[in-house]
């Protein structure tokens, strides 16, 4: 049986227009504040420990409870997004995140802050799953890699933004305003995003054909500017995908790939990058210089995302993932032996670039492309559950390795994960570059 709306091929043949840019910025605004809050913990923790609001042993607790919340939020968002739609889910998670941010800003004790951070994690985990998946369903395959990698760029822009803001705010006003900024931003975006449309692909996949057709006609009118559009590809036969389909011969290897790459990239970010101010502080570097060093390295995150945006379409997903993994391994091996501040920052910059090429491609592009529309959010929710779940325990592992072996021990863990990632992607990963989402549903190549 053929699809009656054929939403996917109709969206894929649209020229880039104001519609795509509007969708990008409405989703991206929420994703920016998500990225801001993902990284705000690094600056806040360094300041909280140095001002005695927290002790070092509470650092892994703060990080772990954040990721317990994000793990739960990712799974809930996956099921809500596939059941009730993308639009309902991303609005709900922004409210949760925004209100919890104000509670964190008012925290009287570190235990209160950790509890508020758990609730914030629920919204953060949901936003990552829904934001990327929703944008993937709107953009054409010829440039999907660039669009999605630049969405990751918007998220990662929260890293240098947090570093710059914290460099000026924390020494003068303390760490609390950092959370208040996140809360205000999230609620403003919630209001602006009320006009964001539902995904036509989701509407069609869930039998809402009349609504999907009406929305498609509206999108086509805006995107075409009154000009004739090329005919879409023929509708593919409808295949019924259920949650159980994720464990089929076609989709289960993709699920493994998605889980492994998100475990790896989460551990790279939150087992190394997010710890930079704490590492610097424990090595006797002042809080002001520590924040400055982190701000310099943070600029590498934007460079990495920009490179990932180009290579994802120009070279393909798999070559980019494997190449960036090798670059990160080389820089990670050299980094602990750098003593001179200039060399430390130079090699660290290269390492951050490699990590964020992976972040752009794995978070923003690859994992959302691997699964059919009917199960996209649930599959990504499961992958993010394991990715975030790894970061629940990794802070304790990182702290133990750092105390016993210094930064060398931490980076040995990161390099091991990167080697596993290269093997898994090379064997089981599929190439998704310039292929329509519906074309990938049953693909094994």
Structure write-up:
The chain has helices spanning 7-12, 18-50, 58-84, 86-105, 110-136, 144-156, 158-173, 176-192, 200-205, 209-224, 252-271, 276-282, 287-314, 317-334, 341-369, 376-405, 407-428, 437-440. The chain is globular and about 60 Å long. Helix 16 (376-405) packs antiparallel against helix 17 (407-428). The protein contains 18 helices and no strands. 76% of the residues lie in helices and 0% in strands. It has a single domain (11-226, 244-440), classed as MFS general substrate transporter like domains (Growth Hormone, Chain: A). By secondary structure, it is mainly α.
Key terms for this structure?
445 residues; mainly alpha; Growth Hormone, Chain: A
Portion of residues within helices: over 70%
Structural class: mainly alpha
What is the CATH class designation?
Answer: Mainly Alpha
Please write the string of helix (H) and strand (E) elements.
HHHHHHHHHHHHHHHHHH
The CATH homologous superfamily name equals: MFS general substrate transporter like domains
Indicate the radius of gyration in whole angstroms. Answer: 21 Å
- Biggest pleated sheet: none
Query: How many separate domains make up the residues?
Result: 1
Quote the beta fraction.
under 5%
Distance between the termini: 25 Å
- What's the pLDDT, averaged over the residues? 88
Label the CATH architecture. Up-down Bundle
**CATH-defined topology:** Growth Hormone, Chain: A
Overall shape: globular
Low-confidence stretches: none
């Amino acid at each position: 049986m053929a699809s009656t709306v054929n939403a996917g091929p109709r969206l894929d043949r649209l020229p880039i227009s104001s519609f795509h840019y509007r969708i990008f910025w409405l989703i991206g605004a929420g994703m920016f504040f998500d990225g801001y809050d993902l990284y705000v913990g690094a600056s806040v923790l360094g300041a909280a420990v140095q001002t005695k609001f927290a002790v070092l042993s509470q650092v892994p607790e703060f990080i772990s409870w954040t990721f317990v919340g994000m793990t739960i939020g990712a799974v809930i968002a996956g099921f809500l997004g596939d059941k009730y739609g993308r639009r309902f889910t991303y609005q709900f998670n922004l409210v949760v995140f925004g209100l919890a941010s104000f509670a964190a800003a008012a925290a009287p004790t570190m235990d209160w802050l950790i509890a508020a951070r758990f609730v914030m994690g629920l919204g953060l985990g949901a936003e990552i799953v829904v934001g990327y998946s929703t944008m993937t369903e709107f953009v054409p395959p010829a440039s999907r890699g660039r669009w999605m990698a630049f969405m990751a760029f918007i998220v990662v822009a929260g890293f240098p933004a947090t570093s710059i803001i914290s460099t000026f705010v924390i020494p003068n006003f303390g760490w609390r305003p950092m959370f208040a900024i996140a809360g205000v931003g999230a609620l403003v975006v919630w209001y602006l995003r009320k006009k964001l449309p539902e995904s036509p692909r989701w509407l069609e996949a869930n039998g809402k054909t009349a609504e999907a057709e009406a929305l498609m006609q509206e999108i086509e009118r805006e995107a075409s500017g009154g000009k004739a559009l090329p005919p879409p590809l023929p509708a593919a036969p409808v295949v019924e995908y259920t949650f159980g389909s994720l464990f089929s011969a076609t989709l289960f290897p993709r699920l493994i790939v998605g889980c492994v790459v998100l475990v790896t990239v989460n551990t790279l970010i939150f087992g190394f990058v997010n710890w930079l101010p704490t590492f610097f502080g424990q090595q006797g570097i002042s809080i002001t210089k520590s924040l400055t060093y982190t701000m310099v390295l943070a600029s590498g995150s934007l460079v990495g995302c920009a490179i990932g945006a180009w290579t994802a379409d120009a070279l393909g997903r798999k070559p980019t993932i494997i190449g960036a993994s090798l670059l990160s391994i080389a820089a990670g091996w050299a980094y602990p032996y750098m003593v001179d501040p200039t060399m430390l920052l130079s090699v660290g910059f290269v390492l951050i670039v490699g990590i964020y090429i992976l972040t752009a491609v794995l978070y923003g592009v690859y994992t959302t492309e691997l699964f059919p529309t009917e199960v996209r959010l649930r599959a990504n929710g499961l992958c993010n559950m394991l990715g975030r779940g790894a970061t629940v325990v990794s802070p304790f592992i990182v702290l133990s390795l750092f105390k016993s072996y210094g930064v060398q021990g931490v980076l040995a863990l990161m390099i091991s994960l990167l080697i596993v990632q290269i093997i898994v992607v090379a064997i089981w990963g599929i190439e998704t570059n310039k292929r329509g989402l519906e074309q990938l549903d049953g693909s094994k190549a």
